[in-house]
């Protein structure tokens, strides 16, 4: 390597940084403490900076060490992903598959998908992250994740997508609100109420679906506050700032301060897609996608009934 830094240097450094104790790190690595200290000194010499502050009592990362740790972890993680991906293409059925999704994917789609996938690949680990669509697309393009559950987005050459489901909406009300006791709640009941809603530029088209429904009902909303995330809507409604319309997955996030009511007069029109790299060759990844298709086809009806979803 250009700077004489080798994989072992990064591995040793990351272990010491995690333990902040040379003796424990040496035990974890299965080596003596003296050669471990020598390797760390060698790394520091090649970088031209100190990575640790050492005293008789403690070991602490320097500011340079904290920065280098982030890069080292990214490199080590990239190597792990590369090995897993390579093995999966060659037919190996152990390693890690990296999957991400918006909240509704993690709460409603991925549990049964992962359960079925692991029956076929019990040695595979499924690493799951909850992320917004934009972040997922960046990680998918860079190869840091292999499968993403996203909201509709502009077509991209590196990407393939399939529709999974459409999502409905619920009213989000403070527990003591007058509308809690009303049966058959509709969007018209929001007239004159302070409403918490999404900022127009965020919310995976939630904003447009909600505002269109209000306009169709002849309701001109009194906007109390705009937010960038659904969980923030729940928090502000619970605090009494206003009431809201939110995607139905929020109803599965119980709160002692909130009541959720279905709003059938707003169409289930916010879609969820599964996405992967267009040139994907990994048998493991392709099997994960096929498991997703099968599980959604088999479980779609029960999912719809319990959560105001509709098939695409």
Automatic annotation (TrEMBL):
Gene Ontology CC annotations of this record: protein-DNA complex
Lineage: Bacteria, Pseudomonadati, Pseudomonadota, Alphaproteobacteria, Hyphomicrobiales
Highest taxon above the source species: Bacteria
Domain HTH lysR-type positions: 5-62
Keywords: DNA-binding, Transcription, Transcription regulation
Stated name of the protein: HTH-type transcriptional regulator TtuA
GO molecular function term, any single one: DNA-binding transcription factor activity
Record organism: Xaviernesmea oryzae
Family: Belongs to the LysR transcriptional regulatory family.
Role this protein plays: Transcriptional regulator of the ttuABCDE tartrate utilization operon.
